[in-house]
Design goal:
Elements (H helix, E strand, L loop, with lengths): L2 H13 L2 H12 L4 H17 L8 H14 L3 H13 L5 H14 L3 H13 L3 H13 L3 H13 L3 H22 L8
């Protein structure tokens, strides 16, 4: 098994060929190499989280696979995946999402974790707290932070503030892209 198989599985997901991605992921989870197993569980989590190709999203299965990946590789990334899928469960998933976000932050405080907290508070309709986290992510060079802050500002009727943030994003965008590169486009 290898990194190229995981890449092929991810390409299948991008094309919407979920069944092929799951077949590759199943092979990866059976590998004796722990890195392949992690890749397989993550790929299965992505497939079940988003569904496609006649496969209905199944958040419980996605969370189960992300949890297996987090046991093999306890990292902020795996806990962010757990939190994101939990948030998609709605109100019932928010307590677990909070625990996963706190664990992710404890392991490594990244802009993606910050965006996770923003999404969490947005889901709870705690818009001022969501704005705080979106602003923090924007200050760390994530375009999703700018977009989220602007959207929340519009929800709160702060249209001038939203326009200001949109203008800053447009003006600073090339500089951010130059300094940070593709990481500026990463999301939760």
């Amino acid at each position: 098994m290898s990194r190229s198989e995981f890449k092929e599985a991810m390409n299948c997901l991008d094309r919407g060929d979920v069944r092929s991605a799951l077949a590759i992921a199943d092979n990866l989870t059976q590998s004796p190499d722990e890195r392949d197993q992690i890749s397989g569980y993550l790929c299965r989590g992505f497939a079940y989280e988003d569904g496609g190709d006649g496969l209905t999203p199944d958040l419980a299965k996605a969370i189960h696979n992300y949890r297996k990946a987090s046991l093999l590789a306890p990292d902020s990334i795996t806990f962010c995946h757990l939190a994101r899928a939990s948030i998609k469960l709605g109100e019932a998933g928010l307590p677990e999402a909070w625990k996963f976000l706190v664990q992710a932050k404890t392991l490594r405080d990244t802009p993606e974790v910050i965006l996770g907290f923003a999404k969490y508070y947005r889901e709870k309709n705690e818009y001022e707290k969501a704005k705080y986290f979106y602003r923090s992510a924007a200050l760390r060079g994530r375009f999703a932070g700018f977009f989220g802050y602007s959207e929340i500002s519009r929800i709160l009727g702060q249209n001038k503030r939203a326009m200001l943030v949109d203008s800053l994003r447009v003006l600073l965008g090339p500089l951010i892209a130059l300094l940070i590169g593709n990481k500026a486009q990463e999301e939760f």
